[in-house]
Amino acid sequence: MALLRSIALLIVAILGVLGLSSGALAQKQVVGWIEKALVRPGDITLDAKLDTGAGNTSLDARIIGETNRNGRKVLKFVVEDGTGKSVTFEREQVGIEVVTSHSSGDEERPLVLLEICLGKDCRETVVNLANRAGLKYPLLIGRSYMLDFVVVDPDNQYKVQTQQKGTGVR
Amino acid sequence: MKIVERLLFTLVLLTIGVSSAEAEGRTVVGLVEEVKITPGGLTLEAKLDTGADHSSLHAVNISRFRRGSERWVRFDVVNTEGDRVTLERELARVSRIKSPDDRPQKRPTVMLGVCLGNVYKEIEVNLVDRSRFRNKMLIGRSFMKDKLLVDPSKKFTLKPTCSDTEKQK
Fold first, then answer.
1. Do B98 and A134 make contact, defined as CB atoms within 8 angstroms?
2. Closest to B145 (Cβ–Cβ): which among A20, A30, A155?
């Protein structure tokens, strides 16, 4: 009887350990609410705020032109990292996002696809281009990027080590 | 055999402890959770907003009055189910809320007790009309401090279960 109980406990223990290592939390990276994020293409590293209150991701960008390429609108925009480095992007516009706010009216922002890396993981995501000049962080990462991907630690900043340069992709 | 059994039992307890509490003893909660406010005892759907320093509550009929030399606020809180309480609280301060493209908003701020899971804290809550928004409360980082991590993929993972003794702390 005692042997049976021991075996049962052992099985529970093993399952528990397996569950822990393959569980949802183990797969999701725990990141601070402020992190260095690498944006690709362009390989620019930006301070990013991980904001669970925001649905989508928003990037501080200055749009300097738009062209037509095979009937599709391509936006040219400049992103600055706050230390003097700036990168010019040319990305196809994939849509428009209407942003609601408490006090002012609705605002329309163009959407582009960019790859954002946090720590060891990268993910392509839709980003709206905005004027975030009055705000502290040039990149605001919203839930559409975070879903099934990261868990946010609201007590810590710069918790993960993000690669500084792109590693081969594009 | 007894010793082996005891060791295994300890291992089981450890495993359960680690998996349910994450590394630093904090609880992983979802983007939206049910919270209970004190006084009033109203239950509200709250969104956990890691982008917000402080918390914010949907309130209507906000009026300020004096009680002796103190400044007070009277307001109604209404949850999604339509339950309503009228609360009177001393004004803690008037907070200025930043927004990317608006001028700063001024909002009356009061101290309220908030219970999420088994975490009870008295926190500063600013009052604002959130009629347009589904979640009647926003929980900011000052409430989450030392207690919570946020997994934005989840919702409604726990019920408010704070005991009266926790509230007295």
1. yes
2. A155
